[in-house]
Amino acid sequence: MNDKKEWVDPQGNLWVRATAEKSDKGNGAYVAWFVFYFFFFSIFTVGVAISFYIVTISLAFSKAAEKLWRNVSGIRPLRLRSEKERLLPLFRKYIQRQPTPMQIYLKKSSSISRKI
């Protein structure tokens, strides 16, 4: 076979032979660039995902989203007296039965005397 690195075939096409020549420099630069781009784009991608998540959650908890969800669900404030008379006592009864956070803590804690 021909040892030339470049040659022209009879049709006029230029051919280049790929040779594996040893280099004293090594592949450190390629490895460094690969590591740099890998970490840069992975951090960038995670940053974009976290930013998207934060924006989505912020919008979901906004007043505009609450109004939109109420309209989609068909929820409206209590307007009729009969609705208020029927539903509000149920809520009051439920709220009155709920223990306070201190009562819950005292009930769970064994190191505090029950006589407090």
Query: SSE string, helix = H, strand = E?
Result: EEHHHH
The count of helical stretches stands at 4
- Report the biggest beta sheet as strand number plus sense, adding barrel if it closes: 2 strands, antiparallel
Shape: elongated
- What distance separates the N and C termini? 100 Å
Q: If you average the pLDDT, what whole number results?
A: 79
Q: What proportion of the residues form beta strands (DSSP E)?
A: 5-15%
Q: Supply Rg.
A: 37 Å
Query: Order of strands across the biggest sheet?
Result: 1-2
Q: Unreliable runs, pLDDT <50, ≥5 residues?
A: none
Helix percent band: 55-70%
Structural class: mainly alpha
Oligomer: single chain
Structure in words:
It is built from four helices and two strands. The chain has 116 residues and is mainly alpha-helical. The chain has a two-stranded antiparallel sheet. Strand 1 and strand 2 form a beta hairpin.
Q: Gist?
A:
By secondary structure, this protein is mainly alpha-helical. 59% of the residues lie in helices and 5% in strands.
Task: Lay out the secondary structure.
Blueprint: E1 6-8, E2 14-16, H1 28-60, H2 63-73, H3 81-97, H4 101-108
Antiparallel strand pairs: 1-2
Descriptive key words:
single chain; 116 residues; mainly alpha; two-stranded antiparallel sheet; 59% helix; elongated
